[in-house]
Here is the input.
Amino acid sequence: MFDSILFDLDGTLWNAVPEVAKSWTLGLEQLGIDRPPITAEELFPCMGLLLPDIVERLLPGMGEEEKPRIISHCCQVENEYLARHGAALYPEEERVLESLSRRYSLFVVSNCEKGYIEAYFSGSRMGKYFTGFESAGNTGLTKAENISLVIKRHGLRKPVYVGDTLLDHKSAAEAGLPFIFAAYGFGTVENTPSIESLAELPGLLDTMEA
Here is the structure.
């Protein structure tokens, strides 16, 4: 039986694309960078990318020396905005997480910037259901390496990873974990156990453990 569940964040536990677009638009305005407001449609294909690549897509041709300043400021604005306003959770999320936390230790492992997972915990009020977390922004490591780090740190014996992209699938495999695809999220993964809603996760876990 599984003893723990590791979750991706964006596209798995919430959809913050509209709020991130608003916060980055605000951050760029504060920096005096002139460009049209960022839209959710424009930002959607960027989800899961590393921050320098996102800046390159949003501000093509921006000099490399400017990217760190833009990233630092916009991420700070983003985290403060999300911690205060939250974002769209998936249906029945609190009920599912509360139920799962009775049976498993829950974690978040994401490629996000430093402080973003904490913003999810604060803005969603779901932090009380999680034992720990790790992010690329904290460690500079890949998602697979951060998964392995969390496993070692907490002495997990049989974890499973839940995510919504092919990168999540590959990272779980690299770390030696079984994977569950959140098909309601942002990506496409084939030939793996999947759920069409977060509410289906407990039932699928029961089936996988039988």
